[in-house]
Write a structure and sequence with these properties.
Blueprint: H1 2-5, H2 11-41, E1 43-44, H3 47-53, E2 60-61, H4 66-94, H5 99-121, H6 128-151
Parallel strand pairs: 1-2
Helix pairs in contact: 2-4, 2-5, 4-5, 4-6, 5-6
């Protein structure tokens, strides 16, 4: 039964795979954006990076550059939230939820993470970023409670 659920002909699993892949790619994009921002600002996290990738003589190690820290904190927030979604989402698929409900869970989480990134990087005034964050947390809690109900 469980192996039948983990197949691309199951619309719930296909939706999970699609939206899960989108948020993972977004998370990687923030890693690259962090590196690009470091290079543009000539601010690096390690001496060897400053020597190797610094194009100016004033390239240096700095841990508190506001521009780099904004992107880095955004990326760290993804690292805290996306793996939890992937874990819970896979277990949620195994509960056999209705396709419509499950796909809306996945869509809302994905949209919340993209909106969170836009709110963080623009930056937009609060509570915009908080609302985007809590929409994703709500999805994870919803899936978690349904998993606990199915496992009990």
């Amino acid at each position: 039964m469980a192996l039948e659920l983990i197949a691309f002909d199951n619309p719930v699993f296909a939706g999970f795979a699609y939206y899960g892949t989108l948020v993972v790619l977004k998370m990687f994009a923030l890693a690259f954006l962090t590196s690009i921002t470091r290079g543009q600002r000539q601010v690096f996290g390690n001496e060897e990076d400053a020597r190797t990738f610094g194009s100016r003589k004033d390239a240096k190690v700095i841990y508190n550059d506001p521009g780099v820290e904004r992107v880095r904190r955004n990326h760290l927030n993804d690292l805290e939230n996306i793996p939890a979604f992937l874990f819970l989402g896979l277990l949620y698929v195994l509960t056999g939820p209705s396709a419509g409900t499950a796909i809306w869970h996945f869509r809302i989480f994905c949209a919340s993470r993209f909106l969170h990134t836009v709110c963080y990087q623009v930056p937009l005034p609060q509570p915009s970023r908080a609302l985007a964050f809590f929409a994703g947390v709500f999805v994870c809690f919803s899936m978690a409670f349904q998993i606990l109900g199915a496992a009990a």
